[in-house]
Backbone:
């Protein structure tokens, strides 16, 4: 790509530059003035937008372990073309989370302490180690893409030998920390609003991350199709959408069971801010996508599949942020709203993550030769080129 | 409130993206008109799209008219699908006058050359020297020649656009399927054909002989 092409201003390039510039200033402000001056966090509300985004980032990146397990452990090779993008999404998602955590720490220079100062009775200790281990697994899973680029065959061969144990380790670590995010809130039964507090919170977190991870892959496929003028493999995407549907139904049934078994149904009739937001979360993230995705023609329709993925992601965002902020506001006696610096730093990191994804896709073989087609005759994947093979 | 704020931001960015695309005259992948090809013997199932701002000529060149009246031309997705990456070679020079039907450039497939014909009268304004490096998946941004032509203004040009283009492409793929059926009975013409999947095997490039190239040109590239 020519330099002139890179520098050619487009709407999103201009917006991105503004966001990153403002974000850098806010980062400088945060590190020079401290959390008190740069955030709207309070003694009774020590976790805000950044922790919420950590939850979102890790959840949205869940497709990495889901797709890797589907292909390499359950041998559903139909999904093979989206393994690499899923792993890349996960890797970038986790890197974003790690960066945001460092920004959020009161003493960021001590970020390495959990590595050597173990507190084995803390949920945070488990989460920290699972994230470190899983990020290492993601590096190993993505390494062949980089090695392929430089034609380094020996290390690829070596990595292939350990690929199955690595994938299994990835699934284990993901399962542990995705659910541990829910466990984190089990220690605040008196503070978290009962609409969201549940002994089953770790299970809710785990099940919901699988559906949203797959929805993120669908959403991302459209962004990639738009950015790189690529086709959409509707066969794979509608298959992923069916898995999302199953996941949403399981999650909803579990929620119904949870509400009935803990006697929380009456809470749904109490008019309050929390109740309305809970309804909105369920409507957007569960009812509408279940209604849409239960129809085969919707799963196979480009437009409706896109909107279904957006609904699932939006519902997930509401859920995690309701748990992190809305559900704690009443007990804290303080209504938290993020400061300008909190918002600008978060947006900057999201823009940088998207830029990193775009850059890696541009220069590394993340996608197979496009478009990949499914030949019904011999049930194998092949490129659409008919007459000549390169 | 934080939850609603983040949700509003997410929706705002998606809405802005739709608006930006609309202003740029582009279509979001979710709303693209797509042609699904299926049920053919030799052509595998696939999806073909034609962007809204692109029109197709009968000789399988796409045309895109810009605001200054210049027309960009390139090889369409059908040819790229059928032949793979073809190397475009032309002997044009900027300022050369082209008449409709004249050879605008040649596509090199293996050791054979296929002629592409100009769908409009015009004068060559620029030639894209980078076009060879692009991937074939990028058919509609990989232009080859830019012409100034009055044919669009005078209505003196035949082309397919929108759903008409998709319907015509469907017919062309059906015709291609017949073409492959015919030539697979004579493998020496296009090389060995896989009977089980419709995909030609490696090394076919060398096997595309003069007769097959000539037939392909006559069937699909003539105006």
Residues:
């Amino acid at each position: 790509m020519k330099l002139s092409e890179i520098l050619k201003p487009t709407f999103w390039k201009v917006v991105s530059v503004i966001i990153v510039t403002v974000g850098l200033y806010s980062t400088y402000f945060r590190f020079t003035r401290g959390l008190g001056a740069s955030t709207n966090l309070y003694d009774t509300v020590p976790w805000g937008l950044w922790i919420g985004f950590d939850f979102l980032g890790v959840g949205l990146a869940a497709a990495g372990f889901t797709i890797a397990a589907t292909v390499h452990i359950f041998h559903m090779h139909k999904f093979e073309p989206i393994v690499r993008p899923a792993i890349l999404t996960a890797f970038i998602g986790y890197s974003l989370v790690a960066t945001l955590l460092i920004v959020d720490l009161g003493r960021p220079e001590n970020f390495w302490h959990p590595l050597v100062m173990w507190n084995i009775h803390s949920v945070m200790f488990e989460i920290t180690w699972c994230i470190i281990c899983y990020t290492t697994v993601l590096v190993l899973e993505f390494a062949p893409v980089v090695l392929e680029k430089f034609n380094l065959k020996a290390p690829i061969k070596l990595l292939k030998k350990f690929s199955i144990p690595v994938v299994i380790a990835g699934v284990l670590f993901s399962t542990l920390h995705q659910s541990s995010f829910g466990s984190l809130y089990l220690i605040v039964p008196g503070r978290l609003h009962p609409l969201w507090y549940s002994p089953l919170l770790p299970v809710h977190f785990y099940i919901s991350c699988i559906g949203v991870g797959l929805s993120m892959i669908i959403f991302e496929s459209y962004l990639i199709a738009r950015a790189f003028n690529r086709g959409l493999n509707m066969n794979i995407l509608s298959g992923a959408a069916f898995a999302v549907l199953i996941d949403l139904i399981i999650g909803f049934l579990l929620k119904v069971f949870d509400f009935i078994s803990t006697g929380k149904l009456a809470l749904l009739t109490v008019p309050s801010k929390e109740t309305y937001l809970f309804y909105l979360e369920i409507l957007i993230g569960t009812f509408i996508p279940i209604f849409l995705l239960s129809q085969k023609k919707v799963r196979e329709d480009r437009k409706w599949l896109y909107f279904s993925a957006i609904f699932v992601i939006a519902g997930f965002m509401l859920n995690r942020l309701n748990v992190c902020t809305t559900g704690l506001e009443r007990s804290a006696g303080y209504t938290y709203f993020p400061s300008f610096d909190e918002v600008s730093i978060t947006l900057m990191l999201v823009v940088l993550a998207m830029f990193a994804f775009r850059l890696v896709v541009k220069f590394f073989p993340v996608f197979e030769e496009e478009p990949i087609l499914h030949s019904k005759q011999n049930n194998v994947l092949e490129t659409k080129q008919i007459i000549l093979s390169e | 409130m934080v939850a609603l704020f983040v949700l509003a931001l997410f929706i705002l960015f998606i809405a802005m993206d739709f608006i930006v695309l609309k202003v740029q005259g582009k279509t979001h992948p979710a709303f693209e008109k797509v042609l699904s090809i299926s049920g053919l013997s030799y052509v595998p199932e696939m999806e073909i799209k034609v962007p809204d701002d692109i029109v197709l000529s009968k000789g399988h060149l796409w045309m895109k008219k810009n605001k200054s009246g210049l027309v960009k031309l390139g090889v369409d997705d059908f040819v790229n699908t059928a032949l793979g990456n073809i190397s475009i070679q032309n002997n044009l020079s900027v300022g050369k006058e082209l008449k409709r039907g004249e050879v605008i450039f040649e596509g090199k497939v293996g050791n054979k050359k296929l002629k592409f014909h100009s769908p409009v009268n015009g004068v060559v304004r620029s030639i894209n020297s980078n076009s060879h490096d692009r991937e074939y998946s990028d058919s509609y941004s990989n232009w080859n020649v830019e012409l100034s032509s009055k044919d669009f203004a005078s209505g003196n040009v035949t082309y397919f656009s929108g759903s008409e283009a998709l319907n015509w492409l469907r017919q062309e793929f059906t015709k291609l399927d017949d073409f492959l059926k015919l030539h697979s009975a004579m493998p020496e013409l296009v090389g060995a054909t896989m009977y089980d999947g419709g995909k030609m095997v490696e090394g076919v490039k060398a096997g595309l002989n003069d007769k097959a190239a000539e037939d392909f040109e006559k069937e699909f590239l003539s105006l």
Summary: Chain B is about 35% helix and 25% strand.
